[in-house]
Amino acid sequence: LVFKLYSPNNLDKLQNEYTAYLKIGNHPRFTQCYFKGKRYLVLKYERGPTLYECLEQGIVIPKQVIQDVEDARNFARSVGLFPTDIHLKNVILQNGRAKLIDVSKYIYPNEDKRWEHLVEGYKRFYWLIRGKKIPIWLLELVKKTYLRQVSEKFSVEDFGKQFMQMYKNN
């Protein structure tokens, strides 16, 4: 079990996440919420590396993971949620399949493009780093640079080329 504790100032986030878990119910691509306390949620502990850890450790991320997350996002939309904030640390790899572990922002009607950008990056560039260990400093640099640059005119291709060049030079 995992106990997700909320500060007294964030009890609205607790209720929002609990509401999202109630709508999701028991779905194979999401972790489960067992109980809501006054300041905490009791969630199922999910084993496996996050996609971030997969990149760090050189663990291959199969295409099935991309499809699983797409299926999970479609399901979330079908129950009135807005799947957002899906990134490398919110997806766990379990036996070649994806498990999403954070739905705290799913009730807000604002879907960011982070997952779409990750999918495009996977399709365009992952074959170059597949199974290779990526240093944490480089993963963090990519993340920080992405968060600074992302906008309506953001180009995954240009962004990826910039970092592939940096990776090749190290």
Q: What features would you describe in this structure?
A:
With 170 residues, this protein is α+β, with helices and mostly antiparallel strands. It has one domain (49-168): Transferase(Phosphotransferase), domain 1. Helix content is 47%, strand content 12%. The protein contains six helices and five strands. The chain has helices spanning 11-24, 51-57, 63-78, 114-129, 136-149, 156-168, and strands at 2-5, 33-36, 40-43, 91-94, 97-100. It is globular. It starts with a strand and ends with a helix. The mean pLDDT is 92.
Give a nutshell description of this structure.
This protein has 170 residues and is of the alpha+beta class. It has helices at residues 11-24, 51-57, 63-78, 114-129, 136-149, 156-168, and strands spanning 2-5, 33-36, 40-43, 91-94, 97-100.
Give descriptors for this structure.
single chain, 3-stranded antiparallel sheet, alpha+beta, two-stranded antiparallel sheet, 170 residues, Transferase(Phosphotransferase), domain 1, Serine/threonine protein kinase, Kinase-like_dom_sf
Shape: globular
Number of helices: 6
- Helix and strand pattern: EHEEHHEEHHH
Q: Strand content of the residues, in percent?
A: 5-15%
Could you please say which CATH topology applies here?
A: Transferase(Phosphotransferase), domain 1
InterPro entries: Kinase-like_dom_sf
Protein name: Serine/threonine protein kinase
